[in-house]
Amino acid sequence: MANTVTPSNGTHQRQERYAKTIVELMRPYLRVRSLFTRDYEGDPKAGAVKVPVRNVDVAVQDYDIVAGVNLTTSATTYLDIPINKNKALNELIDGYEAEAVPDNLIAQRMESGAYSIAKTMEGDAITVLTTSGNYTASKTQGTDSTAATIYADILKDIAQLKKLGVDATRIKVIIDSDTEVLLLTDDKFSNTASQIGAELARNGVVGRINGCDTYTQDLSAYNVQYMIIAPDWCKAIDEWKINPRVVDIRDDVHVGASKLEGRMVYANAVTNNKAVVVKKLTNV
User: Fold this and answer.
1) For 88-144, how does the pLDDT look when each residue is reduced to its tens digit (9 = 90+)?
2) Right CATH number for 7-280 from 1.10.3470, 3.30.160, 3.90.1690, 2.40.30?
3) How far apart are CA 178 and CA 182, in angstroms?
C-alpha cells in the first residue's frame, strides 16, 4: 500500500513530480513530434518565437595572395512562429481533498492524461507535416506503393532530400503500420530491422532504409503511406504554462473534491516544405 503523503511533505514537491511524470509518460506516444528540432530564439511565453532562415550557404572563393578575396554577404531572415496550440487538463477527482488523493488513483489519471495530451500533440505534428509536405516533387505520387515497389519508392523520395545536401543521418522515414507490413516482405529492410540495437529500438527505430532511421506511426487517419523528413526544418516549441497538479476545488458547489489540472502551450512548424516528402494514398 502506498505511503500517505503527510502535510509536512507539502504539495510543491508532488506538483513538480506530476509535471516530470506526465512528460515521461508522453514520450512513447510522441514518435513523430519527438523527431522535430527545438532550436529557436525567443520565449514561447511571449506568444511567438523566431527561427533563423538563411537564403544561401557561405560562398567559397579562390584566394589571391596579393589582391586577397572579395567580401561576400548573405541575408539571414527570421521566420516568426506563433504559439497557436493551447491544450488543458481539468478533470474532477470527487471525494478527495488534494492531499488525500490515493497515489494509485493519481497514477491512473496521470497515465490517461499523458496519453490524451500526447495523442493530441502527435496528431498536430503529423497534420503540420501532411499540410506542409512536398507532394508534387515526389517521384512516387499517383499510385499506391505495393510490397513489390515500396522499398524502391522510399529510396526515390529519400534521394530528393539527399540532393538538397541533407545527410542520411539527418533524414528520418516515418511509415504507417500497414506500410511496415509491406516493407517486412523485403529482405533488404527486414535485415536492417534485425540489426537495430536496443537503444535505437527504445527510441522507436524499426529499421533503416539507405542509412535513414525508420519509425512507425499510425498514419491511416491522414491517408498517408509514409513521410520522409529532415528534422532540421521541422520545429517544435514547447512551454508548460501550468504544470500538472492536483488542487482543491474551493467553490460554492464542490465539497471535499479536487481536480487534476494542467495546461500545455506549444506550436509546430515546417520552415521549408522541401524538407518534407509525403506519400499520400490514392486508393482511399
Assistant:
1) 989 999 888 888 888 889 889 888 988 998 999 999 999 999 998 777 677 788 889
2) 3.90.1690
3) 7
